[in-house]
Design a protein that fits this description.
Largest sheet: 7 strands, mixed
Strand order of the largest sheet: 3-2-1-4-5-7-6
Structural class: alpha/beta
Helix content: 25-40%
Shape: globular
Order of helices and strands: EHEHEHEHEHEEHHHHHH
Strand content: 5-15%
Number of strands: 7
Radius of gyration: 21 Å
Distance between the termini: 17 Å
Number of helices: 11
Length: 353
């Protein structure tokens, strides 16, 4: 492959998997999370190159290029999703979250390495009050070093991902290499009128063992024990229902004022078989954190089911505790969406040669 890519903030490898499937050669990845790096390097079948533990604020981009036998300007794509919790509209606290500056650390790498393309992923809050000024500064810096940037909100469910998941993507094109404007596809042609459902994603998985142990044939597929109160709650719900459908005596005290007031209708909820899943977050392993109940079994979805709803391969393995693996899965770019983005970039490249 000649389309060489570095994945900054690579996490467990969701973005890398999709780019590789699209035909992009992800030759290196890095992240500051040791467990994510272990996971990335454990899955050579899907991620043949290596990833290393690095702090993006301290990494030397010139040294990385030299180690990869690349000159400035040789790299085809620099991709990455800087941690985005600081821009979340659900987050409470100061806007001066240190993670916000990681977007500008990503800009530093781009300015030094000068790839032909860059790709950045982030939460929709990057367009809002919390993130708008950071995005504007990022785009100004990219313009000043010769990139034409294109920003688009995409929903993963429009690209075959069985999940409602809106994210911002910025693609930058080096203007001395390409002269026509880049255009995002807003949906994959195969999914323009239909969406992949929860049933299609996880319906063929057998039930995990009743004793709470891991399924012998499917790693990370186990049923966590719910409290008696939460068992009563989930048994009171039909597929697709959430907290607002619980009788008042089963609602948590903080939810008794009603869903309109608290703004979280789908906590303590079940997924629906014949619809897409809600956004798989870093705490999808907990029934209390969202609509993460199994459609008809009285349990939260398993780690394996969450990974499948994120479109990780069935045989992709993870390192860490339950909470640590859920975080790796929930923070990832869904590989199927990443693959679509890789095709968009490659198609543009080929059409403008």
């Amino acid at each position: 492959m000649k389309f060489k890519c570095i994945d900054a903030f690579c996490g467990a490898g969701g973005l890398s998997i999709g780019l590789v499937k699209a035909g992009i050669d992800v030759i290196f990845g890095f992240d500051n999370d040791p467990l994510s790096i272990q996971t990335y390097n454990l899955n050579k079948k899907h991620l043949p190159h290596f990833a290393e533990l690095h702090d993006v604020t301290k990494i030397d981009p010139i040294d990385i290029l030299k180690r990869l036998n690349l000159n400035i300007g040789d790299l085809f794509l620099l991709a990455g999703g800087p941690p985005c919790q600081g821009f979340s509209i659900q987050r409470i606290g100061s806007d001066q979250d240190q993670r916000n500056s990681l977007v500008l650390s990503h800009a530093r790498l781009i300015k030094v390495m000068k790839p032909k393309f860059f790709l950045m992923e982030n939460v929709p809050g990057l367009l809002g009050k919390r993130g708008g000024s950071t995005l504007e500064l990022f785009l100004q810096q990219m313009d000043s070093c010769g990139y034409e940037s294109h920003t688009q909100l995409l929903n993963a469910m429009d690209f075959g991902v069985p999940q409602r998941r809106k994210r911002i993507f910025v693609v930058g094109v080096r203007q001395d290499c390409y002269h026509s404007p880049f255009k995002f596809l807003l949906a994959h042609k195969s999914y323009s009128n239909t969406h992949t459902t929860v049933r299609e994603a996880i319906g063929d998985l057998p039930s995990p063992p009743l004793d709470g142990s891991e399924h012998p044939e499917f790693p990370h597929h186990r049923a966590d024990r719910l409290s008696e109160t939460n068992l009563t709650r989930i048994r009171a719900l039909k597929p697709g229902q959430g907290m607002e459908h619980l009788p008042m005596d089963l609602r948590a005290d903080c939810h008794k004022i009603g869903p309109k007031q608290i703004g979280h209708r789908n906590v303590y909820g079940r997924m629906a078989w014949d619809n897409v899943a809600p956004t798989i977050t870093a705490r999808f392993d907990s029934f209390t954190r969202g609509q993460f109940g199994h459609p008809d079994q009285d349990r939260s979805i398993s780690l394996r089911e969450g990974a499948l709803l994120q479109t990780f391969p069935l045989d992709f393995d993870f390192v860490g505790t339950k909470v640590e693996i859920a975080r790796q899965v929930g923070n990832a770019v869904p590989p199927k969406l990443a693959e679509a983005l890789g095709h968009m970039i490659l198609d543009y490249h080929r059409q403008t040669l």
